[in-house]
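Catalogue entry: protein
Contents: sequence, fold tokens
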Amino acid sequence: MKVDVVIDLCQGHARCQDRCPEVFGTDEIEGKCVILQPDVPAGLEQKARLAVRNCPEGALIILD
């Protein structure tokens, strides 16, 4: 499983980072999402899916 972000949609709520900090981070300058691990490890897939579903802007994408 892979994840990506549509950076123009991201508003910097950081819900993704709250739910799965192993995969999602926050850019310190703009406050927007940074993908730390685009190829999500098998043990983190459920947490990453939860993070994607919790993005209020729909900025995160799962690429299976």
